[in-house]
Amino acid sequence: MVRRITLAIIGAAAVAGCSSSATAPTVPRAVGSAFALSALQSVAGAFATNTNGVGGAMPAYYDGTLFTINFKELSSGGESATLARNGSINIIYQSDRCMPGGQMFVSVLDAIQGDGFNPLWREVQVVFKNPSSCQQFRSDDAIKSAAAAGVVTLVPTTEVYRCSVIGKPS
Fold it and tell me: Which residues contact 73 (CB under 8 A, 6 or more apart)?
């Protein structure tokens, strides 16, 4: 994949950046520009749809602080094996149906490095009993309190993610 991207960039630069000479064959500017644009769109598309590396970066709260995490779902076989054999999986709380203030619900972590961190995370859906009371939680303790008060129901899923905390947004 990296090789293909590198070749596309080199090809785009060669076609778009070369000047013609009297002895060299020329490529009409429109053809060269179209090729360069097509190659760059292919490269951009590859990065935009790839959830490996930076493509899987997203915000998540831990104890009231917003972090950046790298997030990738395991294959279904990996998920079932991990759930069956690993008793120390962390929890990542998500709420797919909650859009507080019209914004996506930001995931909430139950651990980070130095606090019982494991890079494997089981998704638990936070389901609001009254959808109009949907809100953004910023800690796992707040989510557990809301569940104890009957405001939300916690629904464990079979989805497991590889997740690493990669930074704090500035």
Answer: 51, 79, 159, 160, 161
Per-residue pLDDT tens over the stretch 58-72: 999 999 999 999 888
Nearest-angstrom CA–CA distance, 132 and 129:
9
Name the burial class of residue 110, with classes exposed (0-12), middle (13-18) and buried (19+) by CB atoms within 10 angstroms of its CB: buried
Contact (Cβ atoms closer than 8 angstroms) between residue 70 and residue 56? yes
Domain ranges of the chain: 2-49, 55-167
Model confidence at 49: pLDDT above 90: no
Return the structure tokens found at 52. Answer: 């490996």
Asked whether the beta carbons of 12 and 36 are under 8 A apart, the reply is yes
Please tell me the distance from the alpha carbon of residue 38 to that of residue 53, in angstroms, as a whole number: 24
Q: Give the predicted TM-score (pTM) of the model.
A: 0.67
Question: What is the DSSP pairing of strand 90-94 with strand 107-109?
Answer: antiparallel
Angle between helices 29-49 and 2-17 (to 10 degrees): 160
Residue 134's φ and ψ, nearest 5 degrees, are: -55, 135
